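Final report, results section. Input specification for complex C-07:
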Amino acid sequence: MSTKPRWMLVSLIVLSALNLAVAAPSGEPIVLGEIVSQSGPFAMFAAGHKGAQLAVEQINAAGGVLGRPLQLLSHDDKSNPAEGTKLFRELASKNVLAVIGNSPSSVVFAANPLALELKTPYVISMGYTSVFTDKFSHRYFFRTITSDRVFAYAIAEHMAKQPATRYCTIGNDFAYGRSITAAVMGRLKELKPSVQIIPGCEFWVPPGQLDFTPQITAIMGQKPDALMFGGVVAISSDAFVKQAKAFGLFAKMVGVHPSLGMPTNNLGLQKADLPEGIMTGSDYPYPPVDTKANQAFFNAYKGRWNERPYEISAHAYATVFLLAKTIEKAGKVDREALADTLPGMHYTHPSLGEVSIRAMDHQSTAGWWLGYLTWDDKDNVVGLRDIKYMPGTNYLPTAEELRKIRGQ
Amino acid sequence: MAFSVIGLQLVSALVSATFLFLMASGLSLIFGVCRVLNLAHGSFFMLGAFLAYSVTQVVSSSLETFWLALLLVPLATALLGALLEIVLIRRFYGANLLVQLMPMVALIYIISDFSRFVWGVSPGSVPVLGLFGTVSILDLTFPAYYFVVVLASMVVAAGLWFLITRTRWGILVRAASQDREMSAACGVNQTRLFTMVYALATGLAGLAGVLAVPISGASLEMDMTTVVNAFVVVVVGGMGSVLGSMLAAILIGLVNAFGILVLPQFEMTFVYALMALVLIVRPTGLFGRG
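Structure output:
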């Protein structure tokens, strides 16, 4: 037998002794549940767990929360809403203080009502669908990232200042594809009435479509000023971007897509696939935003996991720190106290800076970075250039709008 | 409508048709000869795309490597097809259709999980599209690679036609697809013939995967979309007819390319409306036998 186990034991003892010397969290751990997609179509959300885990380790190394260690109890929802609800019930029945969500909107839709029923705070760091915090908002639901209304309105505001007026649209024919197209184009027309969608230039393709040749030639035949393709997502968006590049589509018109800059939305694209001329956005743009907080997060994450963070990594990381801060402020480990204290809390997001949880809808004021899609040579990933920050507070619904949305 | 717009949609229709044909011809061949519905056909397409991605990752994203992949990968998927036919598929010939579906569905899941294990969840890209340059047609620059794809499928179509109508092997294939018992009674080694047909068809699926990867990338979800589209082509063209698959692929390409010019918001309906129409007029498909 090798002496490895003994060495590990020795170093473990030394390390824990050192830890003791700094500030040792002791006593029963404070448990945070986590529902995360680690397999299925959204398996890349596993990076959210890595962000949350990193935060837990950092917090514990600095003395824990209320002197007690923080612990993460994670389960894989397999990108499946039914599995997500099952896990939520399971976690809520244990001694978890709150459940963190690193899952797609479909899972959040299913689990959200359970949070109210089981009186367990559900704090999501993924899932941008607006209704969660406007129409379906309730006491136990919180979102630490922005909503799709914010990035739709932000990009619409940017495009309203551009000369383009004649638009074509293309999107996958499913709920999100339809709603994001309607939100961006609707807002754009409100802000700039001269904007119009060219008649007959509004294309809907089945989700998962890979061949866009007939649509691209048809769009080029219409010669629009801009093409809004924000509804083209997942494997369709990789394929569409490659084909657009091959046809030189965005040399002839501006491409508009609010979320193509998000790392999890462009994993299948390489440098030679990228066309110039797409106005898009992200809440974790590359190259990493040059702030002290983000540099610290980026380096720690890379050191811990030996890979680059995705947006969801930063979101989950910020979420755990927010929860730790909230528990400290509440002064006790209690679900009701947490739900009472979270509204109004301020926290630092690595790439978005100082943000807070709004009391009226439990929606974060986290914003959105806009920029042109480009290749980030330093990090060797898809990035953004000429970025500008659009604060969430400029686009989130006002108290009055919320009342209208909720039909009060 | 401008003349140039019509010309461009014609070219687009042809490009879309080539992929449909490469997939549907193999699907149709397997059904015609082996009498099983090869639902796992899209999985071989996906494997072809991922293998091509791996070859270019290991060697380089150059044109030479891509040609190499175009040569090797279809052979690999054909070999795998032959192996699976021997180990699994052949045990279900002659079984009830529903029973036949079970191993197919199992294969889809197994190949999908295998791909996730080997290639992970992120899609792969083979960025060679730009290396082929462009061709100017009317006032539009068309990527030259698309013509490589059209050319490749024309070669495949001509090769298949020659193989089936002009060779002894083709006679055996036709005999087996027309009357399996009689051809067996005449001493045709059906076991080997079926394996070869299955290997040929899965090789074609692999070829389609390699040809598709520069355009759409390789991803875990591409298997189902592809097999569903190919299945529609086979139904319209007639189960078991390669010529039917070719004509149906072109027809569907045209309907789609011009349909979206007239009613762009209803793209999903055109193809299925065409399928319904064909099934009403000719329930066995355009070239199917009763």
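The two ends of chain B are 41 Å apart (CA to CA). Chain B touches chain A through 53 residues (CB under 8 Å). This concludes the modelling results for the funded period.
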